Amino acid sequence: MNVLTLRRLDIIGLLVSLITLGVGIVWAFPIYWSLYATGTVAAGGSPLAVVQSYAHVLVDTPLGRWYVNSLATAGGVTIGVLAISAPCGYAISQLRFRGRKLLWFMILASFMIPIQALIVNHFFLTYQLGLLNTWLGVILPQLIAPIAVIVYKQFFDGVPREFREAAQIDGARHWQIFLGIYLPMNWGITTALGIIVFIGAWNAFLWPFLAVTKTEAMNVTVGATQFRSGGVGELTTAVLVALPVAVLYLLFQRRVSDAISFSAGIKG
Hints:
2 domains; flat; MetI-like fold; mainly alpha
């Protein structure tokens, strides 16, 4: 390479760096504005006042209890969805049984029905079972996640059948093949799906809002709407509600991006 080529590469690299920096600033601006607005409302931006406002929301409000509720329900939804979807995807992909095609068609057809259309039925069933204002009542209706079954099925389709046949020759049963061979081969997909499902369950608002009426049983997204101070309390709560999901996404953003890309490829 000559000197002119190297200079062009340096200029291009500088432009790319500047564009990346600009995109980063635009992305971080809402976070900065939230913190700045909190400080502005809290006694003109005094650092001590900002710390006191966060301490007040964490200690003197039910936010801690709402965090526990959200962690329990989001964790329960995540574990439930993965525990149901992985075996279902394996069965549809690897086993031959009566009604297999019908089951697969029903899973695909479920995309035609928006989850909001089932809210009324979910509410009456939950009421009749006495599960309103309980973690289980919030968790159960959110276990409907056909995309997770489809992702698992598509992944298991790509695993060579020779693995299963060799295990069957050795006398392994289907659950042993699933737990010992197929599931360990897709921990990456499982992790990515788990993060996506957890974030979705944490951010869920409509169903937890309908299924919970007691303040102490609310999720953090629903409980945040109980603040009516019109000042620092609402701003601080909004930051604290969004913080766990933001941190989780930043830590596992590559996994999340892979899962979204894989799911989009399946839907397309």
